[in-house]
C-alpha cells in the first residue's frame, strides 16, 4: 500500500495495528475530538456515541465543568501518594459515601482493582467476623459475569475467551446461574463470605435478573451472614435510570463497587463503598495503590458526582431511556430476537451476528459496539439530546430496512 494514497484513517489504523497489541476488535474509525454525546473522527465525520466508553462518559464527553476542575487541580497538585495526605481525598470520600448512603470509601483507579479490593475486604471480613478457617473463604459469583481482567477475576469468568491459557487461577470462587436463587442457596456454606453480582449483566448482553431475585438474594445474604457485593461499575451512577441498578428493586447491598462514570471519563477513578465494619478490615500496610485517592482523580470525581446531580442525569436516563426502549420495541425485523433495557442501557438481541449492523450504523453516524456477538447495546451519554435519540432511532430503522433481504 503506497503511503501517498493512504487516508488519515488508514494511516492511524496501520500504525496502531503494527505497534499496538491486538487485544480489541474496534470499529475502524479514528476519533480525534468529542463533545457531549458526539465524537468527530480524523476525517471530520461526526458520530453519535451510543457506547459512552462502556458507560464511563455518562456525563458526556469533555464536560466543561470536569475539564475546568481537571485543569485547576492539575495546576495545583496531581499526586501525593498515600504516604502523605492531600486536601481532596477526605471530601471525595465524604461525598461518595453520602451519595451511596454508606459509611466508608476505599478509592482505587480501575474497575478491576476495585473488584479485587472488594474480594480482599470480603475474605478478611469473613475470617474476622464469621470465623471462617484461614484460606477457606468462598465467594459466590454468577455465570456470564464480567468483573474485569485481572488473573483472579478472569479465573472465575465463564467466558472461554477471557480465560483461555491464562491459568492457573485462584481458588475460592463458585459460579451459579444468574438469577437462580436455589442455586445460590445450595452453593452457600459456612465458608461463604460474599456474593458478587452485577445487578444487570451488561457485557453478557444486558441480561436482567428475574423480578424479585435481587431482594430475595439480599434477604438470603442477610440471613446467612454473607456480604452482598454489587458490581455497579457499569450500571451505577444513573446509567439504568436510577442512581444504582439495585434501586430498581429497592435493594441496598453491603458493598458497592464503582468505577467508570465516577470520574466522567477524564481519569480512572474507582472505589469500594461500604459500612465501617467491612472496610475497617484494612489496616495500614494491608492494601494500597500509588495512584488510588490521588488529588486529581478525587477532584474530578467530586465534580462528576455534582454534575450528575445538577443536570438531573439520573432522571434524564429514566425518561429518555423509557422513550428509547418504547421506540426500539416498534422495530420489526426477522433478525430481531429481543429488545430490552433499563434507563439508557438498552439492547437489541439478534438471531445473527450484530457486527454487520454496528458497521452499517457507523456509516450512518451512529456508534454502537456489539457485545457477546449477537447483541447491539445502546448506551449513549446521559446528556444526549432527545432529538439526537429521535435521529438515532431513524438510523436504526433504516439499517434494519436495508438489511431486509
Ligand atoms: C468495565 C467493568 C469492570 C472493569 O473495569 P475496568 O476499569 O475496565 O477495570 C468491572 N465490572 C463491570 C461490571 C464492568 O462493566
From TrEMBL:
PROSITE patterns: AA_TRANSFER_CLASS_3. Keywords: Aminotransferase, Pyridoxal phosphate, Transferase. InterPro entries: Aminotrans_3, Aminotrans_3_PPA_site, Class-III_PLP-dep_AT, Orn_aminotrans, PyrdxlP-dep_Trfase, PyrdxlP-dep_Trfase_major, PyrdxlP-dep_Trfase_small. GO terms for biological process: L-proline biosynthetic process. It is an enzyme of class 2 (transferase). Its EC number is 2.6.1.13. CDD domains: OAT_like. The keyword Transferase applies. The keyword Transferase applies. Its cofactor is pyridoxal 5'-phosphate. One of its GO terms (molecular function) is pyridoxal phosphate binding. Pathway: Amino-acid biosynthesis; L-proline biosynthesis; L-glutamate 5-semialdehyde from L-ornithine: step 1/1. It comes from the Bacteria. SUPFAM superfamilies: PLP-dependent transferases. Belongs to the class-III pyridoxal-phosphate-dependent aminotransferase family. This is ornithine aminotransferase.
